[in-house]
Amino acid sequence: MTEFVLNLSDRRADLATAGGKGASLSRLAGASLPVPDGFHLTTQAYHLFLAENQLQPAIESILSGADPADPATLEEASHAIREHFLQATIPASIAGAVAQAYARLPGQNPPVAVRSSA
């Protein structure tokens, strides 16, 4: 079963599923430490995002022209990859899962923070 979102305290939120920060937050919440309500966007969601937008081939093509010994080419590659991500669209299945998870947070229009684990 594909899961794009896990509750913040979900024990399945490990390094492979939610990244290092997500796994740590899950363990803290599971230990009843004060962790704000929230949810993880899983690596499955990220992989679908890449696939739906055909980003992996674009990333590989861009990186093939970068020279690790030349920081300027790495900077150019980074900017080009960023542009591809900015132009990409979030698949409806992921957007729907995020909207549902957000709707389950307590309060009306709760503020949220987004943190990348990678």
Distance between the termini: 24 Å
Low-confidence sequence ranges:
none
Radius of gyration: 17 Å
The number of E-state strands comes to 2
Approximately how much beta-strand content do the residues carry?
5-15%
Largest sheet entry: 2 strands, antiparallel
The amount of helix comes to 55-70%
Question: Would you kindly provide a written description of the structure presented here, covering whatever features stand out?
Answer:
There is one protein chain. With 118 residues, the chain is mainly alpha-helical. Helix content is 55%, strand content 5%. It has five helices and two strands; from the N terminus they run E-H-E-H-H-H-H. Helix 3 (55-64) runs antiparallel to helix 4 (71-87). The relative contact order is 0.17.
Q: What is the topological layout?
A:
Blueprint (H helix, E strand, L loop, with lengths): L4 E3 L7 H16 L8 E3 L1 H10 L2 H10 L6 H17 L4 H12 L15
Antiparallel strand pairs: 1-2
Helix pairs in contact: 3-4
